[in-house]
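subagent[fold] <- orchestrator: predict structure for attached chain, return tokens only, no commentary.
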Amino acid sequence: MIIDVAGYCEPAPTTAGLYTGIPEQRICDTRVSAPVNQCTGKETTAGRVLAFQLAGQGGLPASGLEAAVVDITAIDSPGFGHLALAPASVPRPETSNLAFGAGEVVENSVLMPVDSSGNVAVYVANGAPAIVIDVSGYFTSSGSSATEGAEFAPMANQARICDTRTAEVSNPCTDKAIGPGQTLTVAVARIGDVPADASAVVRNITAVGSTTGGFVNVFPAGQSLPATSDVNFAPGEAVAGMAIATVGRSGSVNIYNFAGTTHVVVDIVGWYA
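subagent[fold] -> orchestrator:
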């Protein structure tokens, strides 16, 4: 087990460090088959550095950006390896943000600070995967002109708000496995300690026992399904992913399942309001 620390939250009445959620968007995709973007066709062999722009991309502000919520996915590497992310102007970190095996599709959510130019670099330590990067929110910098944003409130104990499996403890999701192309709506505001005015929740979603390979995507209820993914899995796997999920105006989120039938488990560890 290896544990790396990348930052912390503290209460402070300032615009610095406030969080704003945005509709999830894809800003980097190295696959040649993807729509043309800033990363199309870029080689990702071992030892390579993939630099890309965060500020001003995908709904992120061009100025006043301190960090962004980034979901990075490694796809179909011919061998095992790992990736590390860092602001483009700092030395390569000795840590990793994503590890993968040959032929796997693996993703992870990262709170990614940017350099003064709003750029980030991905360091490919081993392997040669296609790389996909999505953004879903951002944190304001010190002196930012932003007047809106939310502060983080951690929960003393994480709360399980949804479990589609048949369980001894019944919950709103019991016996609601998600079929192919289906969407399950889950209420998060006013559930447990989460307040009615929560704009986002820090959630951990686990896909369990899918009948086929695929992915699930979590997005605000009432919004269109984005062309992104949150958790990818193979048949029968139990795969978890942590992220900050923006809450819809109804106080709910949607969970979309791409293929097969899968169970999902959702735990909440904190919120932004």
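orchestrator: received. Logging for downstream: The mean pLDDT is 89. The two ends are 33 Å apart (CA to CA).
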